[in-house]
Description:
The complex is a heterodimer.
Chain A: H1 2-48, H2 55-71, H3 76-105
Helix pairs in contact in A: 1-3, 2-3
Chain B: E1 2-5, H1 11-23, E2 27-32, E3 37-42, E4 59-63, E5 83-85, E6 91-93, E7 99-103, H2 110-122, E8 127-129, H3 147-160, E9 164-167, H4 174-180, E10 183-186, H5 194-201, E11 207-210, H6 217-229, E12 235-239, H7 257-264, E13 269-271, H8 273-277, H9 283-292, E14 297-301, H10 319-335
Parallel strand pairs in B: 7-8, 7-14, 8-9, 9-10, 10-11, 11-12, 12-13, 13-14
Antiparallel strand pairs in B: 1-3, 1-4, 2-3, 5-6
Amino acid sequence: MNQQRDAKGAAAIEALRTRIEKTDDALLALLQRRMTLARGIGRAKLVAGLPVLDPAREARVVRRVATRARELGMPAEEVRSLFWSVIALCRSEQIHARMSAARAAK
Amino acid sequence: MIIVTRPHITDAELDAIREAVERAGLQTHLSRGEHRTIVGCIGDERMLAEVGLATLAGVESVIPVLKPYRQVAREFRADPTIVVVGEGAGAAIGGNELAVIAGPCSVEGREMLFSAAASVRAAGATLLRGGAYKPRSSPYAFRGLGEEALALLAEVRAETGLPIVTEVMDTRQVDVVAEHADMLQIGARNMQNFALLSAVGDVRRPVLLKRGLSGTIEELLLAAEYILARGNDQVVLCERGIRTFETATRNTLDVGAIPVLKRETHLPVIVDPSHAGGKAWLVAPLSFAAIAAGADGLMIEVHPTPSTARSDAEQSLTPDEFTNVMTRLRAFAAAAGRTMAPHNVLHVNRPPDAVGAGAS
C-alpha cells in the first residue's frame, strides 16, 4: 500500500519536474529576447550619445513590475530583487553591444 | 540613510518613495514592522541631497546612519530579526524563547553522534551542532570527517527533528554544506574571510557568525554586513571569548559585548561558553552570565564521553552535566524574562521535505 503510494508520489514529482524544466527553458528564451533588445538599446544610446546607465529608467522598470506582481498576487519584494538582477544582466549586454559597435566604427 | 514612513502607508506611496531613491542610483531595503515601516537606503547618499525625500507622501522622517555598517544597524529594521532554522516550524533564534545549540565539537562517528543528539534533545536543546570540517591550530590535529559527517548529521536530523548547525571553512565547501545543513557556521578564525562571507551571503541558509579571536565588535558587525550585502539577512552573531592577557581561561568571555551588540544591531546574539572558558566547569557560570546579559541563546559542546573526544575534550560537557546546566539555567532565563523549550518533550519526526515548485 505504502509502496504503491510512494511510487505514485515519485511519478507525480517527476512529471512536475519535467514541466518545471520546460518552464525554465521558456524563461531562458524570454531572457535571451530581453538581452537582444538591450543590445539594440545599447547601440541606439551610442548613436544618440547617451550613457548606458540610466538609474531613473531602471527604477521605473522595477516599480512597474513590482506593482504588476502585486496585482498578480506574487511576492513583490522577491520579484523586485529578481528584476534588479535581470536589469544588471541586460545592462552588461548593453555595454558589450556598445563596445563592439564602437570597435566596428573604427 | 533610513526613511521612516507614516503608519498605514500605502503600497503605491512606498513604491514612489523607493523609485525616488533608486532613481538616484541607490538600493532600497524594505522592513515592515508591527508599528512602522522603514526604507533603508544603501549607496552614495550625496545623490539624495536634491531629492527632497522628506517632502514625499508618506514620509515621516529621514535619518542618517553615522555608523560604518548599514544593514545590520538596529535602525535599519523596524523589529529585531528572528532567524528561523530548519524546515517547517524550525527552531527560532532571536525570539523570546532561548535557542540552545548543543552537540559534539566534531562528528566522530554514527554512534556518538546519535547518542549526543538524543541526550541534548532530551535536555531541551533546540538545535544540534557537530563539526564536519574542523579548523585546527595544528595541521596534524584531527580535522573532521568531512562529507561523511555531513551525511550522518542529515540522518540524525531526520531521526530527532533537530536542525543542524555545522561549520563551513572554505568557499568550495559552501554548496555541499548547504545541501546537508540547516545553518552554516563561520568560525572565529574565518570571521574576516571576506570571500567566504560573500559566498554564504549568496546562499539562502541561515548563518552563524562567530566573533574572531581578536575581532572588535565593529569588525564583527562589518563582517555580518558582508553577508547581508549579498542578500542573506538570516545571520546570528556569536560571542565566543576574545584573546586577552589572561591565561586561566582559554579566552575571555566578553560579557559586555552582548548588550553592546543588542543595542547596535537587530540581529540575534548568542554565546559560546565552551570555547570562551575552555573548561567544562566554566560552562555553567558563563552560560548564566550570558543569559543575564541579554543573549538570545547558547552554543554548548556536549560529548557522550568527553575523555575520548578527538577535539576540545576539556571543554565538553557530559550529557548529565549538560542536563544539569539546562535545569539551572531556567531560573536565569525567567529572571531575564525569557522562556526555554520544555525538556523531555518528544518531538514528532518531521515529514520528508515537502517538494515545492522551486525544488528540483
